[in-house]
Amino acid sequence: MAELHENKPKQKKAPEYKRLIAIHAGKPKGGLDECLEVDPEKVRRLSLSELELEKAAETHGKQIVRFTQRNMLRVYPKGIRVDSSNYNPMIAWLHGAQMVAFNMQGCDKHLWLMHGMFKGNGQCGYVKKPDFLLNTNEIFDPEVKHSEKTILKVTVYLGEGWYYDFDHTHFDSYSPPDFYVKVGIAGVPADKQMTKSKIVEDSWVPSWNQEFEFHLTMPQLALLRIKVHEYDMSKTDDFAGQTCLPVSEIRSGIRAVPLMDKKGDKYNNVKLLMRFEFTNPS
Predict the structure, then answer these.
(1) How many structural domains does the chain have?
(2) Can you give the pLDDT at residue 17?
(3) How far is the C-alpha of 208 from the C-alpha of 219, rounded, in Å?
(4) What is the CATH number of the domain that holds 76?
(5) Which range of residues forms the domain containing residue 39?
(6) Which of 104, 133, 162 is the last residue of a domain?
(7) DSSP state, 183?
(8) Which parts of the chain have pLDDT scores under 50?
(9) Which ranges carry the C2 domain (predicted)?
(10) 95 and 42 in one domain?
């Protein structure tokens, strides 16, 4: 048996192919500067917890972006998230991380951001990094406020479908619901914003007819957040639907926007009638 094993021909692998599929992982023994060192001859994979990334981003933001231009960065939730909650993925995406791990059991706003990010590119599961994160001549700094690129105007006309998708006593036992909408942006710090509509009382088909305006410096990384709640005077407002859309995929015009539940599953009938318009800064 030993003789047969010795005579077995060894498989030959082209070194070019091995370099393509094998990305070495691990952290160097030195400090953060050594971890983020870029070797033009090699590609590495670095893994950081969410807390490690937050601390590194405070002092080495541009170095992280430079590292991810050639190497792979994986970010994962801290181990004490036993409730399957999630961290803010925008920090990782703004620094060019390619692998941002989530607790998929959770149903929170940060998981909704992930759903929104990957609605881009036909929902195929892959979204290309913006060109400015790959520009080796001018390394992007997420903390620096850049000039405005575009203005997104969002008009929320009305909503419908709750009457058919919810029990008629789900929101209020004695009267129709009192809905309001929250519309905001997740992205670079300069673009982050959340606004709120008026409350429309006692209506299953609320009509808001309100416009919201967002001045965006990095629309390529911006996500439009939309949430509907039912106002409750005596306790926490009831959740009534949400969605998250990549701004880069939005086109001007009037749209019927379907809403999702907390898990990210689309309701059968709940939707908002909205208008989107992009204008140039003055």
Answers:
(1) 2
(2) 66
(3) 26
(4) 3.20.20.190
(5) 30-133
(6) 133
(7) E
(8) 1-5
(9) 130-261
(10) yes
29: exposed, middle or buried (C-beta count within 10 Å: 0-12, 13-18, 19+)? exposed
115: its two tokens: 């759903």
Quote the pLDDT of residue 207.
98
Q: What integer pLDDT is reported at residue 26 of this predicted model?
A: 65
113 shares a domain with 156: no
CB contact at 8 A, 196 and 182? yes
Model's pTM, two decimal places? 0.88
Q: Of 71, 76, 93, 75, nearest to 23 (Cα)?
A: 71
Which domain-ending residue is among 105, 133, 161? 133
Residues 6+ apart with CB under 8 A from 152: 185, 213, 214, 216, 219, 224, 247, 250, 276, 277, 278
The per-residue b/e assignment along 216-245, b for 16 or more CB within 10 angstroms, e otherwise, is bbbbbbbbbbbbbbbeeeeeebbebbbbbb
Say which residue the tokens 């620094």 belong to. 95
pLDDT of residue 13: 66
